[in-house]
């Protein structure tokens, strides 16, 4: 009987030790996703998202400008990942969340891009070039876009009409950024609101709908840096190239898919 009691006490103490160990917090720490070997060959943006989800805050990118054709190795394919200098890190290992994570990936060299651009230009007929230009809508070439940007009110039937008629089309306009926030818990994905025209102040509402980029990163906006440049900020006037998605009457928001955002 005494042995049974002692065994039960020992088991209970072991349970308490395990429970205490599991309940320890890891404030200021982040746990690695899949081991380093599992990252090779993945798209680097997906790897960035994985590390962000785990809480890592100091992520750097290194581009290997070594691609020529992209047949065997895809553009953006990861070569290796290091965490705090370790290229052979293990999965589910705790680190300080601000240790440097370096993601090295393959891409085309600028020289290769230039050569491909020249070949493409030679092979494209004048008719195809004219068609490409026509597919990009500006206020000079599309009266409906000019009307969209000059219509008063956050909600208007014309916004839905325009979105349905030109869904998937690329539009170009001068606008301004009115609001930015991180998308969910991501450090490098954002929700951005914009209006047409120049920024005045936070009390003035410009004509046209409220445009929104949802869950976008810098690469989706044609920006090479991992983090937002200074001109992507509230109050900045920007030149926007984006694809038409849809207008949400419930939210009063016109959704766009970014192609490129430039300072102006």
Automatic annotation (TrEMBL):
<dbReference type="InterPro" id="IPR032290">
    <property type="entry name" value="DUF4839"/>
</dbReference>
<dbReference type="Pfam" id="PF16127">
    <property type="entry name" value="DUF4839"/>
</dbReference>
<protein>
    <submittedName>
        <fullName>DUF4839 domain-containing protein</fullName>
    </submittedName>
</protein>
<keyword id="KW-0732">Signal</keyword>
<feature type="signal peptide">
    <location>
        <begin position="1"/>
        <end position="19"/>
    </location>
</feature>
